[in-house]
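Below is how a single chain appears once it has passed through the pipeline. First comes the sequence as given, then the structure the pipeline wrote out for it. We keep one example in the README because the format questions we get most often are answered faster by looking than by reading.
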Amino acid sequence: MLNQSIQVKGLQKSYQKVQVLSGVDFEVTKGSIFALLGSNGAGKTTIVKILTTLLKADGGSAYVNGFEVGSKDEAVRQSISLTGQFAAVDEILTGRENLIMIAQLRHLKQPRQAADELLKRFGLTDAADRRVATYSGGMRRRLDIAMSLVGKPQLIFLDEPTTGLDPEGRLEVWKTVKELANGGTTVFLTTQYLDEAEQLADRIAILHEGKIIANGTLAELKKLFPPAKVEYVEKQPSLEEIFLAIIGKKEAK
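Resulting structure:
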């Protein structure tokens, strides 16, 4: 457990007799980027809600930063941060004011200094005193992630962080996520965009029909996909092809 930020074993959850999670197992290594892939309704957000103490599991166990979810929820919340699918920023305030507000809520001794450091880290210094309503989608998302890092949490959950962003905004977020991991922060990422997982993740897990049906590095997942050859050039499968092939195999059983 010393090297694991998250350990999940046999996680189960049902809604009105419909089983969403039916025995989910996985681990996330400290300082890594872990991507959870799945179709709409696969249960990705349900897993995030359970791990962030927003929802109680029906069965199984989960440990986050060494704390048991369900019995040490306050300790879990103190050690993590969660960014949802849409930026939770106050558009009336400036970028700096948003950050100072969160720093004050977290009872930091020097909220302005903490805000300035994050503005610099996320390339928002020049826009710091503009109202957030004037920010682009990518800038809002960067500010949202910066707000999540106030207080230096060990682990950040990003639930479909690039939903609704244009290609330039997505690239901005990708750069930010890579920098987080390089700085030692563990990143748990859910996404429907397979190229996003391909670009960012150290490990990728595929959630289908309530279970993790594949889990590994991109190179390991590629081994599950038979190589196709065109003339004498081996074609490398994309993550999208691998995902669809794995899902197809599962449904065919």
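The chain has a mean pLDDT of 87.

See the next section for the split statistics.
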